[in-house]
Amino acid sequence: MADEVLAVEAVPLEEDFDTLVASLAIDDTLEDKLAKLKKNVDEKLADYADVKRIEKDEDFKAAKKYRAAVNDVKKPIEAQRKAAKKKYSDLLKTFDKTIGEITAPIDALSDEYKAEIDRYDGECRARRLAALKGHYYDLAGEMGPLVPYERIADDRWLNASFGEVKAKNIIERRVGELLHQFKFVNGLDYADEDEKAWAVAWWTRTLPMDSGEVAAAVAAHREEVAKAAALVSTYEQATAPAPEPEPEPAPLPPEPEPMPADEPEPPLGVPRCVRVVPSRPEPDVAEDAAPAPQRGYRVVIECATADELRRVRAVMVDNDIHGYVERM
After folding, report:
1. How far, CA to CA in Å, does 214 sit from each of 144, 145, 147?
2. How many CA atoms lie within 13 A of 123 on its CB side?
3. Looking at residues 271-276, what average pLDDT do you find?
């Protein structure tokens, strides 16, 4: 294999190859030159196409030289590609810049014409819009505020190529249809003014194609209103507060308890309606317990004024009677 490597290195590059590479240029002959170059490259790579398995050091050295020889085939082609790319890239940049400078006055003049055209066209569109709107509102009458011109307008009507007369004819037909429906809506038999106002609002919002849709919408609305009223009534009945019960008659005053046999007479100066009742008996206590406080009386007054209460209290104090006073 070493001898084969030396033989390959001894073969100089063909002059036709160098000539083909140097002649590469982006022109009408480029396609033919590239085809010839491809054929020439295939011939040069034929000697190296059969890559042998490396078994020993000599094979390793030979393989490295073969690879170097193959790369040498590409180097001049790649160099020429980069040179051509730079050349034509720079040329294209120069071309674009120069063309831009040449066409700049053209663009500027064209922009001046466009600005003038747009100005005049805008004025014409504004005049035509005013004419078409005025024509519409003249025909619409009282319907105009409810259905503005913009609801039926078409932007194409403002184009000079469309024709103002043609646009007005379309408006007249459309207004005739709307006025017919508007009259129908106002002539329906309504339950009240609120229902009529709802129908007119629904019509102006939807502008249906058929007047019958208005009658159907009113009927459906009437059913919805009835359902809503029934729901409100049911809710009010469910949430209404329950009626307050009739006040019960005041109970009769209890019969006065009979005076016990051992009940002491009321002290001097105390009204006869006063009953002195001993306090509730104290619970039994142990003999060695502390002495209980003096037993008091419960004074029950069946009929008394504030002055009598004070008199009773004064008498109890004067007679050293312990207890308290109750008013029935």
Report:
1. 19, 20, 16
2. 5
3. 53
Give the dihedral of Cα atoms 235, 239, 241, 243; nearest 10 deg: 50
Give me 14's structure tokens.
């063909």
Q: What's the rounded Cα separation, in Å, for the pair 9 and 175?
A: 96
At 7 the pLDDT is 38
Contact between 303 and 275 under an 8 Å Cβ cutoff? The reply is no
What is the maximum span of the chain, computed from C-alpha positions, in angstroms? 164
- Indicate the average pLDDT of the chain: 80
Q: How far apart are CA 175 and CA 181, in angstroms?
A: 10
Residues counted in the chain: 328
pTM, 2 dp: 0.45
Closest CA to 298 of 317, 272, 274: 274
Q: Is the model's pLDDT at 267 over the cut of 60?
A: no
In the predicted model, what is the mean pLDDT of residues 29-40?
A: 87
- Range scoring the smallest mean pLDDT among 63-77, 129-143, 172-186, 224-238: 224-238
- As a whole number of angstroms, the distance between CA 313 and CA 63 comes to 140
Q: Fill in the DSSP letter of residue 184.
A: H
Binned at pLDDT 50, 70 and 90, residue 197 comes out as very high
DSSP conformation class of 274: E
Place of tokens 């003038």: 116
Strands (E), the chain: 274-278, 297-301, 323-327
Over residues 243-264, the pLDDT tens digits come to: 777 677 666 566 555 555 454 5
Q: CB–CB of 140/175 below 8 Å?
A: yes
- CA–CA distance, 21 with 14 (Å, rounded to integer): 11
Contact 298, 324 (CB under 8 A): yes
DSSP 272: T
Q: Is the dihedral of CA 255, 258, 264, 270 positive or negative?
A: positive
**Kind of pairing, strands 297-301 and 274-278?**
antiparallel
